Amino acid sequence: MKSVRFAVTALSLVMLCLDVIAGAEIEMPGDAETKVPTPPPVAAQTCVACHGEAGASTNPIYPILAGQNMRYIYLQLKDFKEGRRSDPQMSPMAANLSKEGMLALATYFSEQPPPPNVFNADASKAAKGKQRADDTLCTMCHQGSYQGQNEIPRLAGQHFDYIKKQLVDFKNKTRTNDAGNMTSVSGTLSDEDIENIAHYLAGM
């Protein structure tokens, strides 16, 4: 019975990922022969206090935005603004952002290089985390290198504390802006699984 439930969960996850990708409504800039770097929006200066210069956060409780997928950043800002995701700091920050402002921030941070990874992962926990992530089919949405895609976030090299907190929040359903996929998956994870997966992803 457990294997049947896992198979149903895995199948549901795949279908939800396909729905998210197929349902994208954000217009992306066309390919250009020469890519001109996006100048930092004025609002980006407010983000520096928590997320670091150019989104290269050094505080493990605040996510690294540099190199994160543009669509993911935009949708999170939109969810904070519209109340689908709540945070005592981010919700008021996003409240007065326009669509254009959110897109500008998302584009800017997505184009910044991710900072060097300085996290010292526990090798044993990371190995167990990889196995559990493989069993849970995380790469079906987040891709094999955990770079993410479209609305699916990049996880490779993200802060350990932040990854762990998000998985716990999804499991406890205190974060629910995920169309049900992460809530479903995290519900199958033990506290040890979450710890191990966070070591694996943060160490990539």
Topology (SSEs and partners):
Blueprint: H1 2-22, H2 44-51, H3 70-82, H4 90-95, H5 99-110, H6 123-135, H7 139-142, H8 160-172, H9 181-186, H10 191-202
Helix pairs in contact: 3-5, 6-10, 8-10
Return the average pLDDT rounded to an integer. 88
Approximately what portion of the residues adopt beta-strand conformation? under 5%
Q: What is the CATH superfamily label of the largest domain?
A: Cytochrome c-like domain
Name the helix and strand elements from N-terminus to C-terminus, one letter apiece.
HHHHHHHHHH
Shape: globular
Fraction in helix: 40-55%
* Tally of alpha and pi helices: 10
Major β-sheet profile = none
Give your account of this protein's structure:
By secondary structure, the chain is mainly α. It has two domains: 2-20 and 119-202, Cytochrome Bc1 Complex, Chain D, domain 2 (Orthogonal Bundle), CATH 1.10.760.10; 44-110, Orthogonal Bundle (Cytochrome Bc1 Complex, Chain D, domain 2). 53% of the residues lie in helices and 0% in strands. The chain has helices at residues 2-22, 44-51, 70-82, 90-95, 99-110, 123-135, 139-142, 160-172, 181-186, 191-202. The protein is globular, with a radius of gyration of 17 Å.
Considering the chains and any ligands shown, give keywords for the structure.
204 residues, mainly alpha, Cytochrome Bc1 Complex, Chain D, domain 2, 2 domains, 53% helix, disordered N terminus
Question: In a nutshell, what does this entry contain?
Answer:
The protein is mostly helical and 204 residues long.
